[in-house]
Write a structure and sequence with these properties.
heterodimer, A: about 60 residues, mainly beta, Ubiquitin-like (UB roll), 5-stranded mixed β-sheet, B: two-stranded antiparallel sheet
Chain lengths: ~60, ~260
Protein backbone atom coordinates (compact mmCIF):
# COMPACT_ATOMS: atom_id res chain seq x y z
CA UNK A 1 0.00 0.00 0.00
CA UNK A 2 0.99 3.58 -0.48
CA UNK A 3 1.18 6.14 2.30
CA UNK A 4 2.63 9.62 2.68
CA UNK A 5 5.54 9.76 5.11
CA UNK A 6 6.95 13.20 5.90
CA UNK A 7 5.49 14.53 2.67
CA UNK A 8 6.85 11.75 0.44
CA UNK A 9 5.00 8.82 -1.07
CA UNK A 10 6.22 5.54 0.40
CA UNK A 11 5.19 1.99 -0.45
CA UNK A 12 5.00 -0.32 2.53
CA UNK A 13 3.71 -3.75 3.44
CA UNK A 14 3.78 -3.36 7.19
CA UNK A 15 0.51 -3.04 9.00
CA UNK A 16 1.39 -1.28 12.21
CA UNK A 17 3.00 2.05 12.88
CA UNK A 18 5.80 0.80 15.12
CA UNK A 19 6.88 -1.69 12.44
CA UNK A 20 6.85 1.00 9.77
CA UNK A 21 8.96 3.35 11.87
CA UNK A 22 11.48 0.58 12.56
CA UNK A 23 11.63 -0.42 8.91
CA UNK A 24 12.26 3.17 7.90
CA UNK A 25 15.14 3.38 10.36
CA UNK A 26 13.87 6.04 12.75
CA UNK A 27 15.32 6.17 16.27
CA UNK A 28 12.16 5.42 18.15
CA UNK A 29 12.95 7.09 21.47
CA UNK A 30 13.20 10.71 20.43
CA UNK A 31 10.55 11.14 17.79
CA UNK A 32 7.07 12.56 17.81
CA UNK A 33 4.62 10.87 15.48
CA UNK A 34 1.42 12.14 13.98
CA UNK A 35 -0.89 9.92 11.95
CA UNK A 36 -3.61 11.61 9.88
CA UNK A 37 -3.34 14.67 12.08
CA UNK A 38 -3.57 12.74 15.37
CA UNK A 39 -0.63 12.69 17.74
CA UNK A 40 0.24 9.10 18.59
CA UNK A 41 1.71 8.47 22.08
CA UNK A 42 4.72 6.15 21.85
CA UNK A 43 3.06 3.34 23.78
CA UNK A 44 0.23 3.28 21.24
CA UNK A 45 2.46 2.88 18.21
CA UNK A 46 2.38 -0.96 18.06
CA UNK A 47 -1.43 -0.89 18.14
CA UNK A 48 -1.95 1.74 15.45
CA UNK A 49 -2.75 0.13 12.10
CA UNK A 50 -1.73 1.74 8.85
CA UNK A 51 -4.09 1.99 5.91
CA UNK A 52 -3.71 2.97 2.27
CA UNK A 53 -3.38 6.74 1.88
CA UNK A 54 -2.46 7.48 5.49
CA UNK A 55 -0.43 10.60 6.15
CA UNK A 56 2.30 10.14 8.73
CA UNK A 57 4.61 12.79 10.10
CA UNK A 58 7.72 11.95 12.12
CA UNK A 59 9.28 14.87 13.92
CA UNK A 60 12.06 15.71 16.30
CA UNK A 61 13.67 18.73 17.96
CA UNK A 62 16.41 20.62 16.16
CA UNK A 63 18.32 23.80 16.85
CA UNK A 64 16.22 26.92 16.53
CA UNK A 65 15.93 30.47 17.80
CA UNK B 1 18.97 43.09 46.65
CA UNK B 2 18.24 39.92 44.78
CA UNK B 3 17.06 40.54 41.26
CA UNK B 4 14.86 37.75 40.01
CA UNK B 5 12.92 37.41 36.83
CA UNK B 6 9.81 35.32 37.31
CA UNK B 7 7.82 34.09 34.35
CA UNK B 8 4.92 31.72 34.89
CA UNK B 9 6.11 31.07 38.45
CA UNK B 10 9.55 30.00 37.23
CA UNK B 11 12.56 31.90 38.45
CA UNK B 12 15.27 33.00 36.01
CA UNK B 13 18.61 34.27 37.24
CA UNK B 14 20.23 34.62 33.84
CA UNK B 15 18.48 37.16 31.67
CA UNK B 16 20.22 36.04 28.49
CA UNK B 17 18.06 33.47 26.73
CA UNK B 18 19.80 31.58 23.94
CA UNK B 19 18.50 30.10 20.70
CA UNK B 20 20.12 26.84 19.60
CA UNK B 21 19.99 27.24 15.80
CA UNK B 22 22.91 27.66 13.40
CA UNK B 23 25.73 26.58 15.72
CA UNK B 24 28.62 24.99 13.80
CA UNK B 25 28.13 21.78 15.80
CA UNK B 26 26.23 20.42 18.77
CA UNK B 27 29.53 20.23 20.65
CA UNK B 28 30.15 23.96 20.18
CA UNK B 29 26.62 24.69 21.30
CA UNK B 30 27.05 22.54 24.38
CA UNK B 31 30.30 24.30 25.22
CA UNK B 32 28.57 27.67 24.83
CA UNK B 33 25.66 26.70 27.06
CA UNK B 34 28.00 25.29 29.71
CA UNK B 35 29.99 28.49 29.76
CA UNK B 36 27.06 30.90 29.93
CA UNK B 37 24.57 28.78 31.85
CA UNK B 38 21.39 30.24 30.40
CA UNK B 39 18.18 29.38 32.24
CA UNK B 40 16.18 29.18 29.03
CA UNK B 41 16.96 27.97 25.52
CA UNK B 42 14.79 27.67 22.45
CA UNK B 43 14.55 24.76 20.03
CA UNK B 44 12.49 24.05 16.91
CA UNK B 45 10.50 21.06 15.69
CA UNK B 46 11.15 19.55 12.25
CA UNK B 47 10.58 16.42 10.19
CA UNK B 48 13.20 13.73 10.80
CA UNK B 49 15.02 12.07 7.92
CA UNK B 50 14.47 8.34 8.05
CA UNK B 51 17.46 6.06 8.36
CA UNK B 52 19.83 8.77 9.48
CA UNK B 53 21.10 8.50 13.03
CA UNK B 54 21.26 12.12 14.01
CA UNK B 55 21.99 13.45 17.46
CA UNK B 56 19.13 14.83 19.47
CA UNK B 57 19.66 18.48 20.26
CA UNK B 58 18.19 18.08 23.74
CA UNK B 59 21.08 15.79 24.69
CA UNK B 60 23.37 18.82 24.40
CA UNK B 61 21.29 21.15 26.53
CA UNK B 62 21.99 21.20 30.28
CA UNK B 63 19.14 19.67 32.27
CA UNK B 64 18.78 22.85 34.29
CA UNK B 65 17.58 24.83 31.24
CA UNK B 66 13.95 25.51 30.58
CA UNK B 67 13.24 24.40 27.03
CA UNK B 68 11.03 26.70 25.01
CA UNK B 69 9.85 25.29 21.70
CA UNK B 70 9.33 27.73 18.90
CA UNK B 71 6.63 27.36 16.30
CA UNK B 72 8.90 28.39 13.45
CA UNK B 73 7.59 27.22 10.13
CA UNK B 74 4.02 28.06 11.13
CA UNK B 75 2.31 30.36 8.61
CA UNK B 76 -0.90 30.78 10.56
CA UNK B 77 -2.42 30.22 14.00
CA UNK B 78 -3.58 26.68 13.25
CA UNK B 79 -0.09 25.57 12.25
CA UNK B 80 1.40 27.16 15.36
CA UNK B 81 -1.15 25.37 17.54
CA UNK B 82 -0.38 22.08 15.82
CA UNK B 83 3.36 22.47 16.46
CA UNK B 84 2.72 23.36 20.10
CA UNK B 85 0.54 20.28 20.63
CA UNK B 86 3.12 18.03 18.97
CA UNK B 87 5.82 19.49 21.21
CA UNK B 88 3.78 18.83 24.31
CA UNK B 89 3.43 15.19 23.26
CA UNK B 90 7.20 14.86 23.45
CA UNK B 91 7.25 15.74 27.15
CA UNK B 92 9.71 18.56 26.47
CA UNK B 93 7.50 20.85 28.49
CA UNK B 94 4.80 23.35 27.75
CA UNK B 95 6.75 26.54 27.11
CA UNK B 96 6.00 27.83 23.64
CA UNK B 97 7.40 30.71 21.69
CA UNK B 98 4.72 31.52 19.17
CA UNK B 99 6.29 32.50 15.91
CA UNK B 100 3.95 32.89 12.96
CA UNK B 101 5.60 34.15 9.81
CA UNK B 102 4.41 34.52 6.27
CA UNK B 103 6.91 37.11 5.11
CA UNK B 104 9.94 35.25 3.78
CA UNK B 105 11.99 38.33 3.01
CA UNK B 106 12.03 40.02 6.41
CA UNK B 107 10.60 37.19 8.51
CA UNK B 108 8.35 39.65 10.29
CA UNK B 109 5.72 38.02 12.49
CA UNK B 110 2.01 38.04 11.77
CA UNK B 111 0.63 39.67 14.91
CA UNK B 112 -3.01 38.82 14.17
CA UNK B 113 -2.40 35.10 13.77
CA UNK B 114 -0.14 35.24 16.83
CA UNK B 115 -3.05 36.63 18.86
CA UNK B 116 -5.30 33.78 17.72
CA UNK B 117 -2.71 31.12 18.54
CA UNK B 118 -2.01 32.67 21.94
CA UNK B 119 -5.67 32.57 22.89
CA UNK B 120 -5.95 28.88 22.03
CA UNK B 121 -2.67 27.77 23.60
CA UNK B 122 -3.13 29.66 26.86
CA UNK B 123 -6.50 27.96 27.20
CA UNK B 124 -4.79 24.62 26.70
CA UNK B 125 -2.38 25.31 29.53
CA UNK B 126 0.74 26.30 27.61
CA UNK B 127 3.11 28.97 28.86
CA UNK B 128 3.02 31.27 25.87
CA UNK B 129 5.66 33.80 24.87
CA UNK B 130 4.69 35.38 21.58
CA UNK B 131 7.24 36.83 19.16
CA UNK B 132 5.75 40.03 17.75
CA UNK B 133 6.26 43.19 15.81
CA UNK B 134 6.38 45.81 18.55
CA UNK B 135 2.83 47.10 18.50
CA UNK B 136 1.54 48.25 21.88
CA UNK B 137 -2.13 47.38 21.34
CA UNK B 138 -1.19 43.85 20.31
CA UNK B 139 1.15 43.41 23.26
CA UNK B 140 -1.56 44.53 25.69
CA UNK B 141 -4.10 42.22 24.12
CA UNK B 142 -1.67 39.30 24.30
CA UNK B 143 -1.13 39.89 28.01
CA UNK B 144 -4.89 40.12 28.53
CA UNK B 145 -5.21 36.76 26.80
CA UNK B 146 -2.66 35.28 29.19
CA UNK B 147 0.72 35.53 27.45
CA UNK B 148 3.44 35.08 30.07
CA UNK B 149 5.67 37.70 28.41
CA UNK B 150 5.88 39.51 25.10
CA UNK B 151 8.83 39.30 22.74
CA UNK B 152 9.10 42.24 20.36
CA UNK B 153 11.73 42.09 17.67
CA UNK B 154 14.77 44.37 17.73
CA UNK B 155 15.30 44.04 13.99
CA UNK B 156 14.67 41.24 11.48
CA UNK B 157 15.69 37.72 12.56
CA UNK B 158 19.34 36.98 11.95
CA UNK B 159 20.06 40.49 10.69
CA UNK B 160 22.39 41.51 13.56
CA UNK B 161 21.18 45.09 13.15
CA UNK B 162 20.45 45.69 16.81
CA UNK B 163 17.57 47.45 18.52
CA UNK B 164 16.01 49.37 15.62
CA UNK B 165 12.62 49.35 17.30
CA UNK B 166 13.84 51.17 20.40
CA UNK B 167 11.08 53.79 20.70
CA UNK B 168 8.35 51.19 20.41
CA UNK B 169 10.04 48.79 22.81
CA UNK B 170 10.49 51.59 25.34
CA UNK B 171 6.78 52.37 25.23
CA UNK B 172 5.99 48.69 25.56
CA UNK B 173 8.16 48.36 28.67
CA UNK B 174 6.37 51.35 30.19
CA UNK B 175 2.85 50.35 29.29
CA UNK B 176 2.66 46.56 29.29
CA UNK B 177 2.12 44.70 32.52
CA UNK B 178 4.32 41.70 31.68
CA UNK B 179 8.00 41.03 31.03
CA UNK B 180 9.23 42.46 27.73
CA UNK B 181 11.93 40.34 26.13
CA UNK B 182 13.63 41.60 22.99
CA UNK B 183 13.99 38.74 20.54
CA UNK B 184 15.67 38.83 17.14
CA UNK B 185 18.22 41.02 15.48
CA UNK B 186 20.57 41.72 18.38
CA UNK B 187 24.04 41.48 16.90
CA UNK B 188 26.40 42.92 19.48
CA UNK B 189 26.68 42.79 23.25
CA UNK B 190 26.10 46.55 23.28
CA UNK B 191 22.69 45.94 21.64
CA UNK B 192 21.76 43.64 24.51
CA UNK B 193 23.10 46.11 27.09
CA UNK B 194 20.92 48.82 25.54
CA UNK B 195 17.81 46.65 25.80
CA UNK B 196 18.54 45.94 29.45
CA UNK B 197 19.27 49.60 30.25
CA UNK B 198 15.81 50.43 28.91
CA UNK B 199 14.24 47.94 31.31
CA UNK B 200 13.75 44.82 29.23
CA UNK B 201 13.27 41.76 31.40
CA UNK B 202 15.58 39.64 29.23
CA UNK B 203 16.86 39.24 25.68
CA UNK B 204 16.85 36.22 23.39
CA UNK B 205 19.88 35.87 21.13
CA UNK B 206 20.70 33.17 18.62
CA UNK B 207 22.29 34.06 15.28
CA UNK B 208 24.91 36.54 16.50
CA UNK B 209 26.25 34.04 19.01
CA UNK B 210 26.00 30.94 16.82
CA UNK B 211 27.73 32.43 13.78
CA UNK B 212 30.51 34.27 15.60
CA UNK B 213 34.06 32.93 15.32
CA UNK B 214 33.96 31.90 18.95
CA UNK B 215 30.37 31.30 20.07
CA UNK B 216 31.20 30.50 23.70
CA UNK B 217 33.19 33.68 24.26
CA UNK B 218 30.78 35.82 22.27
CA UNK B 219 27.90 34.46 24.34
CA UNK B 220 29.83 35.27 27.48
CA UNK B 221 30.32 38.83 26.22
CA UNK B 222 26.57 39.05 25.63
CA UNK B 223 25.95 37.70 29.09
CA UNK B 224 28.17 40.29 30.72
CA UNK B 225 26.49 43.02 28.70
CA UNK B 226 23.07 41.81 29.82
CA UNK B 227 24.20 41.86 33.46
CA UNK B 228 25.76 45.30 33.07
CA UNK B 229 22.69 46.73 31.38
CA UNK B 230 20.42 45.28 34.02
CA UNK B 231 22.53 46.63 36.87
CA UNK B 232 22.57 50.05 35.25
CA UNK B 233 18.79 49.99 34.88
CA UNK B 234 18.33 49.01 38.53
CA UNK B 235 20.79 51.69 39.65
CA UNK B 236 18.84 54.39 37.85
CA UNK B 237 20.41 55.90 34.75
CA UNK B 238 21.19 59.61 35.29
CA UNK B 239 19.47 62.12 33.04
CA UNK B 240 21.13 63.77 30.06
CA UNK B 241 21.86 67.44 29.63
CA UNK B 242 22.58 69.39 26.46
CA UNK B 243 25.14 71.56 28.30
CA UNK B 244 28.26 70.60 30.22
CA UNK B 245 28.04 70.14 33.96
CA UNK B 246 31.43 70.32 35.63
CA UNK B 247 32.38 67.30 37.66
CA UNK B 248 35.13 69.12 39.58
CA UNK B 249 34.26 71.92 42.06
CA UNK B 250 33.77 75.35 40.50
CA UNK B 251 35.31 77.13 43.51
CA UNK B 252 38.79 77.38 45.01
CA UNK B 253 40.62 77.88 41.72
CA UNK B 254 44.33 78.80 42.05
CA UNK B 255 43.79 81.98 40.12
CA UNK B 256 41.48 83.44 42.75
Amino acid sequence: MKIRLNGKEVTCNIENLEGLLKMQGFSLERIIVECNGRIIPSQERPRVLIAEGDTIEVLSFVGGG
Amino acid sequence: MEDKLIIAKKEFKNRLFIGTGKFPSNAVMKDTLQKVKPDLVTVALRRVDSGIKSDNILDYVPKSCTIMINTSGARNADEAVRIARLSKASNAGNWIKIEVIRDNKYLLPDNLETLKATEILVREGFVVLPYISPELAVAKKLVELGAAAVMPLGSPIGSNRGLRTEELVKIMIEEVDAPVIVDAGLGKPSDAARCMELGCAAVLVNTAIAVSNNPADYALAFNQAVSAGRLAYLSGIPGESSRARASSPLTGFLRE
